[in-house]
Design goal:
Number of helices: 8
Domain UspA: 4-139, 153-285
Radius of gyration: 20 Å
CATH topology of the largest domain: Rossmann fold
CATH class of the largest domain: Alpha Beta
Family: Belongs to the universal stress protein A family.
CATH superfamily of the largest domain: HUPs
Organism: Microbacterium awajiense
Pfam families: Usp (PF00582)
Protein name: Universal stress protein
Distance between the termini: 34 Å
Number of domains: 2
Order of helices and strands: EHEHEHEHEEHEHEHEHE
Helix content: 25-40%
Strand content: 15-25%
Shape: globular
Largest sheet: 10 strands, mixed
Length: 296
């Protein structure tokens, strides 16, 4: 069985989006689903009366929200629900992830984001700079994707620098567990400065990108359906918008070279991608041996 999937749940549309994606991921990979609500720790609560009755009310309310949230989970999906107390939502989710040995941590976007778009809130921002497990950022409206969509394809964003081992290994694990197809993507010739001779650089860069992608593709197991594509456009956002995206698809990116070993750090290219992505993005931690995984 695959490592558990942990989802940070709130009784909001963003929470429902996160739960929907986590459910599809857990079901497709055969993993156990753990839904977690994090309540403020006593040391943080400055407006809540320190009364046991009120604490009991918060606990009961969180239990009720979780019960409602998982009432319609598909039959046969192994799941568990948890209420945790922590100084921050991100801290509580990481603690829960460590307790259950999670393979993935799923969080929704901030309130106010447009449907099909990402908006990184406080919790997601905290996690993409501190987590030591892959974090999946879910755009608004993901709950509308049918459960039957599963995880049909993984788009793996690769740069030309060394250090893509971890994101490729994660892609292989996910593709093997879910049966998803793999699309290897390079954006190396996109978003060049206006002051350079873009024509020459694009030709040379495209050839180099194709070589990098071909070598990455050759490293995949033979039974994984894969293809390669080099993004085209005057900016990262334009190139991402021009690509086709399937309902239920996941994008995988590695952490920036600035990331500490076995930690996440969302690089500049991944941040630009996130502005236009209509599908969830998974950020994979940098390994101790990696030299950099930002797909730039």
């Amino acid at each position: 069985m695959s490592a558990p999937v942990v989802v940070g749940y709130t009784a909001t549309k963003a929470g429902s989006d996160a739960l929907a994606l986590a459910t599809r991921l857990a079901r497709a990979s055969g993993a156990e689903l753990h839904s977690v609500i994090v309540l403020p720790a006593d040391t943080r609560s400055v407006i809540t009366p320190p009364k046991s009755g009120y604490d009991r009310y918060l606990q009961d309310q969180a239990d009720a929200w979780l019960a409602d949230a998982v009432a319609d989970l598909p039959a046969g999906l192994s799941h568990a629900e948890h209420v945790r107390y922590a100084d921050s939502f991100g801290e509580g989710l990481l603690q829960a992830s460590h307790e259950v040995g999670a393979g993935h941590l799923v969080v929704g976007g901030a309130d106010g984001s447009l449907r099909g778009r990402h908006r990184v809130g406080t919790t997601a921002a905290e996690l993409v700079h501190t987590a030591d497990v892959p974090v999946v950022l879910v755009p608004r409206g993901a709950r509308k994707t049918p459960l039957s969509a599963g995880i049909p394809r993984l788009t793996v964003a690769l740069g030309t620098r060394p250090g893509a081992d971890e994101v490729m290994a994660e892609a292989v694990r996910l593709a093997t567990d879910t049966g998803a197809r793999v699309r290897l993507l390079s954006l190396v010739t996109v978003d060049l400065p206006a002051t350079v001779d873009t024509g020459v650089i694009r030709v040379a860069g495209a050839a180099h990108a194709q070589d990098v992608l071909a070598r990455a593709q050759s490293s995949l197991p033979a039974d994984i359906d894969s293809r390669v594509v080099v993004g085209d456009g005057d900016s990262i956002e334009e190139a991402v918008a021009a690509l086709d995206w399937e309902p239920g698809e996941l994008v995988l990116v590695g952490s920036s070279r600035l990331a500490q070993p076995k930690r996440l750090f969302l690089g500049s290219t991944a941040t630009k991608m996130l502005r236009e992505l209509p599908v969830p993005m998974m950020v994979v931690p940098r390994s101790r041996a990696a030299e950099g995984g930002d797909p730039s």
